[in-house]
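Lab notebook, bench 4. Continuing the backlog of folding jobs that were queued last week. Each job is logged with the same field layout so the records can be merged later without manual cleanup. Today's entry covers MurR/RpiR family transcriptional regulator, a 290-residue chain. Filled in by technician R.K.

JOB TYPE: sequence-to-structure
TARGET: MurR/RpiR family transcriptional regulator
LENGTH: 290
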Amino acid sequence: MIEDILKEKKNMTSGEERIADYFLDKKTLLRKQSSRSIASQLFINPSMITRFCQKLGFHGYTDFLEQYLKEIEYTESHFQDLDPNHPFDDQDKNTVIASKIGQLYHEIVDDTLKLIGHDDLQNAINCLNKSDIIYVYSAGVQGDVAQTFKDKMLKIGKNVVLETKMNELYYRVSYCSLNCSFVILSYSGEIESELRGVKKLKERHIPLLAITSYGDNTLSQYADYVLNVSTRERLKDNLGDFAMNISTMLILDILYVSIFNTDYLKHVERRRSSSQGFDLFRTSKNPNIK
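JOB STATUS: finished
OUTPUT FIELD FOLLOWS
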């Protein structure tokens, strides 16, 4: 994320470090400042501000400011009273833990929904809906969540292939038909084996949907479509990977329901007929679920 880059100050000159510190200190106050006014306060040439922003990968100060303010708005919303990395401690009673985890789930859902844009979601839905085969890759525990997505899609006639070995992605991409799409679940977006396959996807012009963290990672740069998960947990210092799991489940359910809704009556009939045939002998004494 931009804030992380500014804090790390990797390969920055002393002058660039002063600009980075200024941006970190002012945050949303930058909205009212031009590059010229910042330069006058730092006693530097305005062009140095532009070059600094370009060094970070932006076209200039205006482009940087737009993305930085958007990031600040995201990071300062939700999770005000709860640490997503350590949502409970050893002094909490069971009922307190239950309440905190419930609150955490609410925060993760709200956080995820805030990151989903209409056009991004619609483009992803269109891509998956017209694909003959959808290959879903996950190297982590999200594979279990993806399995549920696969099962739901199968019951409405959509062919989803779930893969959990990222090192096989490159070979799958090399020989698959062109009328398919790929979905990669990756929090960091920086796994070396997945990126080799992702570059091959680009080469063969096969669409890729990345479900990954908010910010600028390599997977997002190569993906045709990106949907972001709640990005509050650190990669290592957390107590359960709650955010990635809940976020991924929510996004996959949204995709499933949206695809279902593209031809609602047909999919209702497909799901009903397939379920009735397979679950013929399932029964329950509970009238609410019978």
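OBSERVATION: The domain at 2-75 is CATH 1.10.10.10 (Arc Repressor Mutant, subunit A).
SIGNED: R.K.
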